[in-house]
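Example 9 (inverse folding). The structure is encoded as follows.
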């Protein structure tokens, strides 16, 4: 094993995570239903200073507490209205989650190399990486849950109240962040996992009761509600009982019980989603599960029990809940990554012996050769893709990726010199994977912006507005995506016309030639006497820019 300073592993983890989640973040525009909506809410919060009640183009939006919107609004205030500013809080949250996994694994007594493997597995799992480069609230919830789990595990391993209180305060603070990110699910996932970890540990593993751990768990869970309660009180004072009822009941208890019929899925929904979205590491999960079950049974491993409880207990609770979305299980990927990493890391290092029939060195060399080849040809692939898509080959994003790819080549050159050290090969593999992950988002997916982004129709509207100072833009029967995207793009609220009667009122007040409207094709199917100025397809929807006048 190569002698590496302990701090060097943490630096390597930080650099790796920064590359994966922050490099080329501005390249891809805001896609889908969630990103434009969340960016619009955050922009409106920043522009109109409505920090208590999030609003979507003037309408109250209370599906989640406001912590992510606060962070996003501050980012937009600091960096301006850009894709980078909108996605930066999510990228930083994903970065923090990976670092927290690294520190947690280190505190469990594993090597820096194994901790690097665990963090790398989490960062490169499909769902975590995808959400870490999107303007979405769920990655912040995930990061706070990982941080809370790390703090509590460290708390239970620390002796003396004076030293424990620091970790208790951090545990409470991180739980508060999880609650302010996604409300009750932010407490349910870590608290349920930790409760059963302590319970099974008392009954089966250590077979001793530590009252202080239970006190810390219940006290921290109770105190974590204080920031959320303060926000709910401010919401009540400014917007009344209905707003608080919507947050507490409709969007939390109602979704769990199924009385609020949004996102209702069968109980087996997550059985498919959990392994599917851990790709490309799902194939290793069964082996890791067997290994950690054996560790619990034969070695009474509290660490293995901790990771299994983190994965299994919340999974059962989320499966029972009526409302289900694949992002709800995002915090469980950290547990899976840790189980896989703490299984394969010691194997690579040679501290965990496998049967002699398994030639681990040969396996590592084959895998390293395959991935080394991927890293080596990635600059050429990026060049070809950029040329096919008619992207500037030497744009800032592509230049960054080429530099990273070159760094990967240098790393593998060094591994050729130090090929007897498989841990260096594995570390190089992760950095090679990081380069290609960034390339997917910053080059390949970027080319799909015209197909998945609303920006083209907003650009067309802005050009029409610029033709005359008195022209006004309206949204006709818009979806939440269009409402949010319009606020984010134009930096202000855009008036809404909800039906044909509202159109006639606008015609009378604004005039035939001065009103512009953005709508989807389905909503204008029955309208007459309109003139379509611009039309584009955003994924499956035809977006229309029109005004009053004759036919098309």
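The amino acid assigned to each position is listed next.
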């Amino acid at each position: 094993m190569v002698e590496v300073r302990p701090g060097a592993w943490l630096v390597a983890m930080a650099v790796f995570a920064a590359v994966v989640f922050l490099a080329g973040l501005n390249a891809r525009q805001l896609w889908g239903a969630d990103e434009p909506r969340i960016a619009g809410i955050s922009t409106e919060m920043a522009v109109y200073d409505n920090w208590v009640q999030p609003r979507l183009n003037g309408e109250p939006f209370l599906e989640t507490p406001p912590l992510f919107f606060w962070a996003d609004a501050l980012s937009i205030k600091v960096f301006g209205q850009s894709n980078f500013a909108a996605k930066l809080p999510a990228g930083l949250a994903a970065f923090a989650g990976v670092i927290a996994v690294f520190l947690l694994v280190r505190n469990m007594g594993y090597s820096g190399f194994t901790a690097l493997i665990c963090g790398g597995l989490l960062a490169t799992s499909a769902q975590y990486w995808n959400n870490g480069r999107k303007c979405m609230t769920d990655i912040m919830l995930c990061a706070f849950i990982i941080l809370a789990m790390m703090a509590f595990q460290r708390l239970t391993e620390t002796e003396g109240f004076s030293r424990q209180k620091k970790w208790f305060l951090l545990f409470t603070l991180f739980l508060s962040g999880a609650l302010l990110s996604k409300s009750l699910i932010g407490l349910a996932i870590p608290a349920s996992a930790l409760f059963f970890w302590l319970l099974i540990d008392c009954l089966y593993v250590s077979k001793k009761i530590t009252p202080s751990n239970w006190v810390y768990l219940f006290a921290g869970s109770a105190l974590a509600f204080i920031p959320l309660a303060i926000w709910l009180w401010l919401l009540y004072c400014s917007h009344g009982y209905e707003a608080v009822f919507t947050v507490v009941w409709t969007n939390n208890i109602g979704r769990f019980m199924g009385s609020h019929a949004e996102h209702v899925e069968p109980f087996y929904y997550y059985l498919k989603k959990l392994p599917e979205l851990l790709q490309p590491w799902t194939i290793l999960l069964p082996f890791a599960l067997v290994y950690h079950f054996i560790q619990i049974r034969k070695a009474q491993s509290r660490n293995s029990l901790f990771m299994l409880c983190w994965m299994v207990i919340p999974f059962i609770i989320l499966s029972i809940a009526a409302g289900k979305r694949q992002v709800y299980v995002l915090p469980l990927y950290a547990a899976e990554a840790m189980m896989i990493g703490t299984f394969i890391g010691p194997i690579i290092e040679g501290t965990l012996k496998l049967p002699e029939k398994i030639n681990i060195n040969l396996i590592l060399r084959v895998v390293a050769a395959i991935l080394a080849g991927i890293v080596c040809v990635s600059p050429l692939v990026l060049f070809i893709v950029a040329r096919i898509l008619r992207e500037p080959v030497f744009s800032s994003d592509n230049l960054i990726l080429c530099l990273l790819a070159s760094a990967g080549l240098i790393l593998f050159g060094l591994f050729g010199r130090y090929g007897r050290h498989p841990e260096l090969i594995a570390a190089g593999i992760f950095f090679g994977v990081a380069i290609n992950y960034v390339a997917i988002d910053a080059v390949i997916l970027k080319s799909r912006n015209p197909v998945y982004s609303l920006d083209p129709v907003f650009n067309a509207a802005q050009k029409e507005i610029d033709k005359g100072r008195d022209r006004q833009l309206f949204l006709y029967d818009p979806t939440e995506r269009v409402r949010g995207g319009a606020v984010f793009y134009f930096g202000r609220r855009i008036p809404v016309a909800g039906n044909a009667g509202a159109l006639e009122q606008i015609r009378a007040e604004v005039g035939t030639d001065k009103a512009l409207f953005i709508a989807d094709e389905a909503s204008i199917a029955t309208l007459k006497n309109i003139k379509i100025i611009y039309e584009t397809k955003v994924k499956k929807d035809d977006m229309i820019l029109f005004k009053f006048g004759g036919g098309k």
